[in-house]
């Protein structure tokens, strides 16, 4: 199915909003709960699947929806359609946490794009969103990070979100080691695995975590500076930033005593 040709603009800088402009009968699909506002002519419907294969039948839709449950996403997706007969109408979406929205033209990626399981935000109807299992032993053994991914394919526009700032890296038969939560997306030509961070001392006292993601090959990689797990840890009452405002060793000591 050919994807609908949608127009868009991205509003804001730190906590961005994606505004999609639709012509009559054009549709955009999005994660459930991502909508911020929509104009009068926009109608929405919750469906199983992405709508890229309208004739796939009930079993196909159930399989597609079930694969989304494996990735931790909602069973359903929301389809927003301009039901008016003339003019343009708009619908807007926001990411579930502060960060950056990245537009992707899938026509320039004939092999598709591999995206972390929580990275997809919205796309033109006709975009196929499928589950992608990482076959590498490390990613499979350590679960969560990088084992269950999503693959976006099609010939239209898709939008992914990332925490903090997005960094685009071009690898040319190279190896890049990254914090496991900082990988947002990569081209299929990249081999993605999870490995140990280093020796025992580095793993325990290094502060970089026990595991690192390794990206090897030729292609583009998109990284995020503030994955949601780091944001949550920073905001927790007992997180690393909890007593920074008290300043210095004495402030931390007094804070610790008062907490007793």
Tag the structure with descriptive keywords:
260 residues; alpha+beta; Double-stranded beta-helix; seven-stranded antiparallel beta sheet; six-stranded antiparallel beta sheet; globular; disordered C terminus
Give a topology summary.
Blueprint: E1 7-11, E2 17-22, E3 27-31, E4 35-38, E5 42-48, H1 57-70, E6 76-82, E7 89-94, E8 99-105, E9 113-116, E10 120-124, E11 128-133, H2 137-141, E12 148-153, E13 157-163, E14 166-179, E15 183-186, E16 190-196, H3 200-205, E17 211-224, H4 228-235, H5 248-259
Antiparallel strand pairs: 1-2, 2-7, 3-6, 3-10, 4-7, 5-6, 8-13, 9-12, 9-15, 10-13, 11-12, 14-17, 15-17, 16-17
Task: Give me a quick take on this structure.
17% of the residues lie in helices and 44% in strands. The protein is an alpha+beta fold and 260 residues long. The chain has a domain at 7-165: 4-Layer Sandwich (Double-stranded beta-helix), CATH 3.60.160.
